[in-house]
Amino acid sequence: MHELAVTESILNITTRFARQENATRVTDVYLVIGDLSSIIDDSVQFYWDFITKDTVCEKSLLHFRRIPARAKCNNCGHEFQLKELMPCPQCDSARFKIIEGEEFYVDSIKITKEETTHVQ
Amino acid sequence: MCNSHDHSHDHTHDHVSIVENIMSQNDQLAAHNRKLLDKAGVFGINIMASPGAGKTSVILKTIEALSDRYKIAVIEGDTAPVTIDADKIIAKGVPAVQINTGGNCHLDAHMTLHGMDELELDELDLLIIENVGNLVCPAGVALGTHANVVIASVPEGDDKPYKYPNIYRGIDVILLNKTDLMPYIDFKMDYFLQGLEMLNPGLESFALSAKSGEGIAAWTAWLEERIHEHQHRHHREHTHTH
Ligand SMILES: Nc1nc2c(ncn2[C@@H]2O[C@H](COP(=O)(O)OP(=O)(O)OP(=O)(O)O)[C@@H](O)[C@H]2O)c(=O)[nH]1
Ligand SMILES: [Mg+2]
Ligand SMILES: [Zn+2]
Ligand SMILES: [Zn+2]
Ligand SMILES: [Zn+2]
């Protein structure tokens, strides 16, 4: 059920910005999701299609940009990808800082505006 | 359709930058909860763990250790409308509010606010929140508490930090419960602790048993220290004796 709550948050944020911009339609939503952030998967698109019915986001596409987890060793400064939890591959230190992979945000949207100019 | 007069339609396609965290609404509400707790001088903790790790058992022991000196209340998050855990707390003479998450896998800041609404915050020193039993979902869902606690337990195994890394990041203290079962289970403490060290360097940890009571005193001493710090920071009169 987690995905539904996440999808609702995405819709809230997107709708707020769409309204600010006087959008008539949102066509695309770009998400940036780090591998270490809350787990969300394909079911988000499923929920999205469902909850955007009759909203400005109806029929819009979700695009996911996944960011792999990366760490920087506190001991030797080596930067490495964290495929699984493991010490620094260069010096074996267990102290490192996560530098990428925690992203969890709505990056941008593509919208259509229909400006009608009335001429007398 | 506009048929009555001449007009032209302009369709513009814009790419609008947003860059807003998906949890922002929850985080704002969590900040609001935090302010309410601070104003009332209440120290709040959010206890997360897998089902059956011993959250309720540890809370009961904590109440036994501290309730003569501190006013405590508990918010119980459950996915089903059962009051089993809340009833155990109430039997100790401590107010408990049960929040039924309606199948949802974790508490969020909104549900927590509703729970807090039912309590007399001004009369409390410590608010304990038992999150829904789950090692995945509660991670990253802030409630507004001052300390986030994970309870791991020996029979779950020593590899949990490797398999569920997210829950151990950004927490303030970990309790390893059910140490009385250590003789029956191959639990490599070094392996467990190294996993934690990688995820959360210098994390405060206490090994304890809610069954035997071993190690409970060290944990409650730490908690008491934090309650004190918090009360000093928020200039609240001490109603207890040292
Ligand atoms: N041997 C042993 N058993 C324990 C200990 N702590 C809890 N238990 C037992 O573990 C079981 C689950 O304990 P609870 O305190 O209900 O666990 P919980 O995390 O609150 O469970 P849920 O709320 O259902 O997620 C119970 O049968 C407890 O008696 C302990 O330190 N040692
Ligand atoms: Mg419980
Ligand atoms: Zn969840
Ligand atoms: Zn290194
Ligand atoms: Zn509400």
What features would you describe in this structure?
The complex is a heterodimer of chains A (120) and B (242). In chain A, a hairpin with a 5-residue loop joins strand 3 and strand 4. In chain A, the strands form 2 sheets. Chain A has a 3-stranded mixed beta sheet, covered by helices on one side. Chain A has 2 helices and 6 strands; from the N terminus they run H-E-H-E-E-E-E-E. By secondary structure, chain A is of the alpha+beta class. In chain A, 23% of the residues lie in helices and 37% in strands. In chain A, helix 1 crosses helix 2. Chain B is α/β, with parallel strands linked by helices and 242 residues long. In chain B, 34% of the residues lie in helices and 22% in strands. Chains A and B meet through helix 1 and strand 6 of A and strand 1, helix 1 and helix 7 of B. The structure holds guanosine-5'-triphosphate, magnesium ion and zinc ion (3 copies).
Write the layout of secondary structure elements.
The complex is a heterodimer of chains A (120) and B (242).
Chain A: H1 2-20, E1 25-34, H2 43-51, E2 61-67, E3 70-73, E4 79-81, E5 96-100, E6 104-118
Parallel strand pairs in A: 1-2
Antiparallel strand pairs in A: 1-6, 3-4, 3-5
Chain B: E1 7-21, H1 24-40, E2 43-48, H2 55-66, E3 72-78, H3 84-91, E4 96-100, H4 109-117, E5 126-130, E6 147-153, H5 160-163, H6 165-168, E7 173-177, H7 189-199, E8 204-207, H8 216-233
Parallel strand pairs in B: 2-5, 2-6, 3-4, 3-5, 6-7, 7-8
Guanosine-5'-triphosphate (GTP) is lined by residues 49, 51-57, 85, 133, 177-178, 180-181, 209-211 of chain B.
